[in-house]
C-alpha cells in the first residue's frame, strides 16, 4: 500500500471502519505521520458530534453499578500521555527497559506504537513492519480476559508473528504477561513478555509451525511453562 | 421506547463551557475523584449509551458495553490529552471503538454459530430520534449534515452507526472498493468544517 493510499484511510480510521489488518497498518503509519495524526484528531472531533443524534439515558441501575465498580479500580498514572511531551529522555528509558525485557524474554523485541510515542527502535520496527506488510499475513484477535484485546499477525513468507496488544490492564503486582506459541506437539513455548497498555511485540520462536498463541499471567521472571489459565488464546486454525 | 428520558441537566450540549467542564471532570477523575466521575457520568451517559445502543442494538449487551466504556474512562482518564482534542471527542471515540469491537466480535462468533441471531434482538433505527430532537446540539448536527451529499451521508451512517468497515460499506452500496473510504473521509471533512470543530 502506497503512502498516498494509506493517507486516504484517515476518515475510515476515525470512525473505526478499518478491519484489524488495515487498522494495524494505519497505526504504524500514524506513528510516523504528524499530518495524518492531526487530520485523524480533527475528523474524530467531527464524528464525535454524531452521538448528539442518538442520546438515550441508560437504566438508573447502570449508574449504581458503574459507581460501585470504580471503587475497586485504580486509575492508571498519566505516563503514556506524558511520553509525547518529553520524548527524548523518557523514550530512551523505555527503549532501555525494552532492551532489558528483550534480554529476559530471549530476544523478544518491544516498542511502543502510535499511542505510546513513536518507535525509534529500528530493528524491531522493521521486523514488525515486515510481518504486518507481508502479502500473506493472517490475523486473529481475542479479547484479553483481564481487559483489552490482542491480535496476532502471522506471515509464513516472512517467517514471523507479531502480537498487537491494545488497552491491556496492568498485570498484578509482581506479575507479568507472558506470551506463548503452541508448537506442533501442542506444547506452549515461551514467545515473549508484555506489560499493560498498548504494545506491538514480535513473537519469539517458530511461528510457521505454531498452531496458536496465548497470553498468561506469570511471576515476574517469567515461566518455562504456563502456570495459570490463559487470559487470551488465539487459535491459528488447521496447519497449512 | 419506554426508557427514553429527557436529556439530563448536565447535558454536554450546552457547548463550549460544557467542553471545558468535561475536561476538568476528566482530570479530577484521573486523580481518583469519584464525585467528579459521577458528574462526568451524568453529563455524558445518555450520549455514550445512545451511541452504543445504536451500534450494538441488543439492549443488555449495550448496557454491558456502556459499563465497560465508563470503567475504561475511569481507568485511563489520565491518558486524555487536551492538546489533542476535546474531552467529549475522546470519550465518544473510546465508546465507538468499544461498541464496534463488540459487534465485530459477535459477528465472528455468529459466523461459527448461526443460532446467535435468534438471541440477538434489534432496536428499530429511529427509536432514539425523539430524544435527539430535544437536544440543541442534535439540531446543530442535523443542519451540518445537510451540507453533505446524500451519498456521503449514506456511507458515513453505515460506517459510524452501522459499525461496518469501509470495504463492507462499498459492497453494501455496490461501489468500487476505495470509493466508500473516500466518501467517509470527504463527508467527515465537510461535517468538521460545517460544525467548526477540530481545527
Mean pLDDT of chain A: 78
The outline of chain A comes out as: globular
Poorly predicted runs of chain B are 1-16, 114-130
Beta content of chain A comes to 15-25%
Fraction of residues in H or I helices of chain A:
25-40%
Helix- and strand-based class of chain A? alpha+beta
- Uncertain segments of chain A of ≥5 residues (pLDDT<50)? 80-92, 98-124
Q: Main beta sheet of chain A, described?
A: 5 strands, antiparallel
Number of helices of chain B: 10
Oligomer: heterodimer
Largest interface, C-beta within 8 A: A-B, 53 and 92 residues
Cα-to-Cα separation, first versus last residue of chain A? 26 Å
Structure summary, number of beta strands of chain A: 9
- Give the beta-strand count of chain B: 0
What's the alpha carbon Rg of chain B, rounded to whole Å? 17 Å
Question: What integer value in Å does the Rg of chain A equal?
Answer: 19 Å
Approximate shape of chain B = globular
Compute the separation of the termini of chain B in Å. Answer: 37 Å
The secondary structure category of chain B is mainly alpha
Beta-strand residue percentage of chain B:
under 5%
Present the secondary structure layout.
The complex is a heterodimer of chains A (240) and B (199).
Chain A lengths: L2 H5 L2 H5 L5 H11 L3 H14 L12 H11 L8 H7 L1 H18 L4 E3 L10 H12 L4 E6 L5 E7 L4 E9 L6 E8 L5 E7 L2 E6 L9 E8 L12 E4 L5
Antiparallel strand pairs in A: 1-7, 2-3, 3-4, 4-7, 5-6, 5-8, 8-9
Chain B lengths: L14 H16 L3 H23 L2 H18 L10 H26 L3 H4 L9 H6 L1 H10 L4 H11 L5 H7 L6 H17 L4
Structure description:
The complex is a heterodimer of chains A (240) and B (199). With 240 residues, chain A is of the alpha+beta class. Helices cover 35% and strands 24% of the residues of chain A. In chain A, the strands form two sheets. Chain A has a five-stranded antiparallel sheet with strand order 1-7-4-3-2. In chain A, a hairpin with a 4-residue loop joins β3 and β4. The longest helix of chain A has 18 residues. About 17% of the residues of chain A have low confidence. Chain B is an all-alpha fold. Chain B contains ten helices and no strands. Chain B is globular, with a radius of gyration of 17 Å. Chain B starts with 14 loop residues before the first helix and ends with a helix. The N terminus of chain B is likely disordered.
Amino acid at each position: 500500500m502506497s503512502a498516498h493510499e494509506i493517507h486516504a484511510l484517515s476518515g475510515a480510521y476515525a470512525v473505526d471502519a478499518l478491519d484489524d489488518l488495515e487498522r494495524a497498518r494505519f497505526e504504524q503509519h500514524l506513528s510516523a505521520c504528524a499530518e495524518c495524526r492531526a487530520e485523524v484528531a480533527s475528523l474524530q472531533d467531527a464524528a464525535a458530534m454524531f452521538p448528539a443524534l442518538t442520546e438515550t439515558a441508560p437504566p438508573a441501575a447502570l449508574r449504581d453499578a458503574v459507581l460501585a465498580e470504580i471503587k475497586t479500580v485504580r486509575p492508571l498514572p498519566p505516563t503514556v500521555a506524558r511520553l509525547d511531551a518529553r520524548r527524548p529522555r523518557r523514550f530512551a528509558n523505555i527503549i532501555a527497559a525494552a532492551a532489558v525485557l528483550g534480554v529476559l524474554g530471549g530476544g523478544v523485541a518491544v516498542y511502543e506504537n502510535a499511542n505510546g510515542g513513536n518507535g525509534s527502535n529500528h530493528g524491531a520496527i522493521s521486523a514488525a513492519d515486515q510481518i504486518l506488510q507481508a502479502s500473506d499475513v493472517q490475523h486473529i484477535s481475542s479479547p484479553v480476559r483481564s481487559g483489552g484485546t490482542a491480535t496476532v499477525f502471522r506471515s509464513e513468507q516472512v517467517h514471523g508473528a507479531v502480537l498487537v496488544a491494545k488497552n491491556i490492564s496492568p498485570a498484578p503486582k509482581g506479575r507479568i504477561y507472558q506470551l506463548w506459541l503452541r508448537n506442533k506437539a501442542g506444547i506452549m513455548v515461551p514467545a515473549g513478555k508484555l506489560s499493560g497498555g498498548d504494545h506491538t511485540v514480535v513473537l519469539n520462536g517458530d511461528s510457521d509451525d505454531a498452531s496458536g498463541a496465548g497470553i498468561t499471567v506469570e511471576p515476574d521472571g517469567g515461566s518455562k511453562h504456563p502456570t495459570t489459565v490463559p487470559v487470551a488464546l488465539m487459535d491459528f486454525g488447521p496447519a497449512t | 421506547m419506554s426508557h427514553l428520558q429527557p436529556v439530563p441537566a448536565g447535558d454536554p450540549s450546552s457547548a463550549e463551557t460544557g467542553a471545558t467542564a468535561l475536561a476538568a471532570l476528566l482530570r479530577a477523575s484521573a486523580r481518583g475523584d469519584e464525585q467528579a466521575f459521577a458528574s462526568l457520568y451524568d453529563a455524558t451517559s445518555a450520549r455514550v449509551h445512545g451511541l452504543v445502543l445504536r451500534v450494538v442494538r441488543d439492549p443488555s449487551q449495550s448496557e454491558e458495553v456502556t459499563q465497560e466504556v465508563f470503567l475504561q474512562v475511569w481507568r485511563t482518564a489520565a491518558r486524555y490529552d487536551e492538546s489533542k482534542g476535546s474531552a467529549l471527542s475522546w470519550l465518544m471515540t473510546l465508546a465507538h471503538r468499544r461498541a464496534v469491537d463488540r459487534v465485530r466480535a459477535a459477528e465472528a462468533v455468529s459466523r461459527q454459530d448461526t443460532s446467535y441471531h435468534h438471541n440477538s434482538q434489534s432496536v428499530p433505527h429511529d427509536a432514539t430520534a425523539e430524544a435527539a430532537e430535544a437536544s440543541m446540539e442534535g439540531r446543530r448536527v442535523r443542519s451540518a449534515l445537510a451540507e453533505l451529499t446524500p451519498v456521503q451521508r449514506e456511507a458515513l451512517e453505515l460506517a459510524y452507526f452501522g459499525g461496518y468497515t469501509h470495504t463492507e460499506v462499498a459492497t453494501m452500496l455496490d461501489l468500487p472498493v476505495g470509493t466508500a473510504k473516500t466518501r467517509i473521509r470527504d463527508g467527515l471533512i465537510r461535517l468538521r468544517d460545517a460544525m467548526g470543530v477540530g481545527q
